[in-house]
């Protein structure tokens, strides 16, 4: 079931077009990745989704309802974790989450309980200090707690891991997975393709305000190639026959160099197992396998001639 439907969304700032007839649909319960380089239009798209910015034209439906200004019911279903930290530095973590919870209409015991739960979720439940004393990663985690305090059905995260240490990054990635497992639909914008690969099932790659490719990871990669390539180091290559290998279903090409086999396999056929079984049957030891599996970076490079990150 579709939870978010964006049709022909258009937004310009003066002469500069930020979003040009963007179409996206996001399924209920998925983590959807919006991947693109700086200036691609990710923040503009999600700021329109959250009613922070007004669109020029196009339509947005959330949970089958056209998004309108000041729609309290839809607002209550959304949680936003903005790219710029939206926390009050002179308040504690709990004061922050309680403030944001109250904006969503929570109050009394419910507000305190949900605020504490959100802090526990991001691992900040025992922090009593003012937020200005927090590390960058802790501030980012608090930013997330403020966005989830009211248990949103749809959580939109705008580059939530920019400029933080690997430990906080891992914590955030894990939290997002758990939120999703608990039923929250998530839109995750990033220019880190590794994050999109790890978290998201479906991804839209945007560039210069346009969707240049969308689909699940495998279909995006098949834009570039439908082959996976491996470099396999063996202890004795002389026992192996190139013609036997090429006979294996799904093997596209084979090349021998010194004690290495360079093999290209059809992505749709699981032939790696058969290849390994063949090598083992010859009593040859595999010393190392290096995968040259395609990444979303390759897809972006192929489509635009540029890298995601300069
Ligand atoms: N308030 C604004 N006024 C003028 N131009 C803007 C404004 N906001 C965004 N833009 C322009 O719109 C385009 C899309 O910007 P946007 O911030 O949506 O990109 P992004 O993909 O989120 O990039 P980043 O990762 O750098 O935030 C850019 O060319 C940007 O300069």
From TrEMBL:
<dbReference type="GO" id="GO:0005524">
    <property type="term" value="F:ATP binding"/>
</dbReference>
<dbReference type="Pfam" id="PF00005">
    <property type="entry name" value="ABC_tran"/>
</dbReference>
<keyword id="KW-0067">ATP-binding</keyword>
<keyword id="KW-0547">Nucleotide-binding</keyword>
<dbReference type="InterPro" id="IPR027417">
    <property type="entry name" value="P-loop_NTPase"/>
</dbReference>
<dbReference type="InterPro" id="IPR017871">
    <property type="entry name" value="ABC_transporter-like_CS"/>
</dbReference>
<protein>
    <submittedName>
        <fullName>ABC transporter ATP-binding protein</fullName>
    </submittedName>
</protein>
<dbReference type="GO" id="GO:0016887">
    <property type="term" value="F:ATP hydrolysis activity"/>
</dbReference>
<feature type="domain" description="ABC transporter">
    <location>
        <begin position="4"/>
        <end position="233"/>
    </location>
</feature>
<dbReference type="InterPro" id="IPR003439">
    <property type="entry name" value="ABC_transporter-like_ATP-bd"/>
</dbReference>
<dbReference type="InterPro" id="IPR003593">
    <property type="entry name" value="AAA+_ATPase"/>
</dbReference>
């Amino acid at each position: 079931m579709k939870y978010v439907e964006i049709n022909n969304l258009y937004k310009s700032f003066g002469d500069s077009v930020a979003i040009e007839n963007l179409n996206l649909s996001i399924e209920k319960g998925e983590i959807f990745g919006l991947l693109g380089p700086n200036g691609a239009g990710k923040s503009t798209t999600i700021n329109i989704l959250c009613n922070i910015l007004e669109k020029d034209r196009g339509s947005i439906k959330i949970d089958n309802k056209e998004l309108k200004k000041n729609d309290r019911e839809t607002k209550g279903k959304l949680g936003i974790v903005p790219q710029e930290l939206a926390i009050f530095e002179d308040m504690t973590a709990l004061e922050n989450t309680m403030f944001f919870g109250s904006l969503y209409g929570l109050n009394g015991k419910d507000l305190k309980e949900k605020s504490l739960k959100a802090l526990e979720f991001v691992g900040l439940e025992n922090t009593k200090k003012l937020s200005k004393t927090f590390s960058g990663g802790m501030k980012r985690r608090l930013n997330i707690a403020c966005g989830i305090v009211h248990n949103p059905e749809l959580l939109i995260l705008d580059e939530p891991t920019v400029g933080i240490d690997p430990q906080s990054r891992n914590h955030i990635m894990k939290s997002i997975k758990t939120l999703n497992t608990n039923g929250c639909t998530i839109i995750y914008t990033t220019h880190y393709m590794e994050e999109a690969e790890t978290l998201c099932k479906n991804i839209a790659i945007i560039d210069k305000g346009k969707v240049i490719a969308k689909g699940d990871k495998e279909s995006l990669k098949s834009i570039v190639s439908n082959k996976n390539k491996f470099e396999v180091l063996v202890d004795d290559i002389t026992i192996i026959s190139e013609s036997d290998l090429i006979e294996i279903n799904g093997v596209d090409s084979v090349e021998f160099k010194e004690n290495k086999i360079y093999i290209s396999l059809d992505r749709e056929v699981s032939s790696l197992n058969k290849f390994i079984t063949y090598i083992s049957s010859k009593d040859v030891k595999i010393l190392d396998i290096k995968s040259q599996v395609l990444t979303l970076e390759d897809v972006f490079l192929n489509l635009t001639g540029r890298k995601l990150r300069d």
